[in-house]
Hints:
By secondary structure, the chain is mainly alpha-helical.
Amino acid sequence: MDRNAIASAVAESLFKTEAAVDDALVQAVGLMRRMMDARRALGLPPATGDRALMRVTAAVDALGEAQREMVRTHGEMGSLGQALGLGDLGFGPLIKPLEGRVEPLPTD
């Protein structure tokens, strides 16, 4: 394999890993919401399942940190690619919808 093919394979794996971490975070947050909705629907006291919810919260925190680390990894890999003279590999759409986003995200 040539250098660009090897770099492309690494980039593809990076993107898949980023997506997997994002998906896991979405699932964990969904689990937390479903647990709370179930508690309300069953008319249970607010403290019911507290320990389990605390564990899911810890998992969400850990996944958030994993997501931040993947973003850092992406940046490091981009710098490494430039240093190796690989340039941009041209993955994904030409127009990146969130690129350069400056407005704050909703906080509801």
